[in-house]
Design a protein that fits this description.
The chain is an alpha+beta fold and 278 residues long. Helix content is 36%, strand content 24%. It is built from 8 helices and 13 strands. Strands 1, 4, 5, 6, 7, 8, 9 and 10 form an 8-stranded antiparallel sheet that branches. Strands 11-2-3-12-13 form a 5-stranded antiparallel sheet. Helix 6 packs across helix 7. The longest helix is centred in the middle third of the chain and has 22 residues. Component of the proteasome core, a large protease complex with broad specificity involved in protein degradation.
Length: 278
């Protein structure tokens, strides 16, 4: 490499070949910038921080649907009513987050950069399993913070473009705080309302469900979670705040508009007035 300008003005680390991982690059050059590096796992007195709550995901005949409610809580208080907990991470994947909101959003942004960086460096897109493994490594890197009570638990969903049959291409991955990665079948939920959301999905889910119907099932599951879990919000018809929904299929990851989700949420609420049990 020439030592003349402009190469001379660029730090050597930026010109050193390495793996196509943005996280590994930051760990090598600026490790203090990684979310988990600010915590050493020793117990500490922490103030109440906003926490995100319930995320659900369902496999469909067209791929997969992932949805999350909009409430963040701080102890017994509602910290935010319209927080975003579900994010499109690249063309064929999305992630929902439960846990400490600030750290979770930071990890999601790092993950989005990780996928974009790999594609630019390697000129190919990571496989779906590869994306899930990269996210597992990032969750593992946050273990020190998790041991101090700042856990981040994502739910990752994606469409495997290597599989020709759309009904088999939708995948759902869950994680524990140590970075353990688990492939889920049919549906899954994370967060404080996940027990109630999964109970609702257990009754209503059926294999081969269409995307529109899966979105309704996701909204109903969040409605049932909100009915029993104070940290989960149901559809807010007064403020027009509805769950964030992303559907992933052959056309890629598409976030549903608030109007489209709102129409289904209004229908769910109207039906529950007639049949409270669903």
């Amino acid at each position: 490499m020439s030592g003349s300008w402009p190469a001379q003005a660029i730090p050597a680390a930026y010109l050193t070949p390495g793996a196509g991982s943005f996280t590994e690059f930051v760990a090598r050059t600026e490790p203090q910038l990684l979310p988990g590096s600010r915590f050493d796992g020793r117990p500490a007195a922490l103030p109440d921080l906003p926490h995100g709550t319930t995320i659900v995901a369902l496999a469909t005949r067209d791929g997969v649907v992932i949805a999350g409610d909009r409430r963040a809580t701080m102890g017994s208080m509602i910290a935010q009513r319209d927080i975003e907990k579900v994010f499109v991470t690249d063309l064929y994947s999305a992630v929902g987050i439960a846990g400490t909101a600030g750290l979770a959003v930071e990890i999601v942004r790092m993950f989005q950069l990780e996928l974009e960086h790999y594609e630019k460096i390697e000129s190919v897109r990571l496989s779906l399993d590869g994306k899930a493994n990269r996210l597992a490594a990032m969750v593992r890197g946050n273990l020190g913070a998790a041991l101090q009570g700042l856990a981040v638990v994502p739910l990752f969903a994606g469409y495997d473009t290597d599989i020709a049959d759309p009904s088999r291409a939708g995948r759902i991955y869950s994680y524990d705080v140590t970075g353990g990665r688990y492939c889920e079948h049919d549906f899954h939920a994370v967060g404080s309302g996940s027990v109630f959301a999964k109970s609702a999905l257990k009754k209503r889910f059926r294999p081969g469900v269409a995307t529109d119907e899966a979105v309704r099932l996701a909204v109903e599951a969040l409605y049932d979670a909100a009915d029993d879990d104070s940290a989960t919000a149901g559809p807010d018809l007064t403020r027009r705040i509805f769950p964030v929904v992303v559907a992933i299929g052959t056309d890629g990851a598409i976030r549903w508009t608030d109007d489209a989700v709102g129409a289904i949420a209004e229908q769910v609420v109207a039906d529950r007035l007639l049949r409270p049990g669903g």
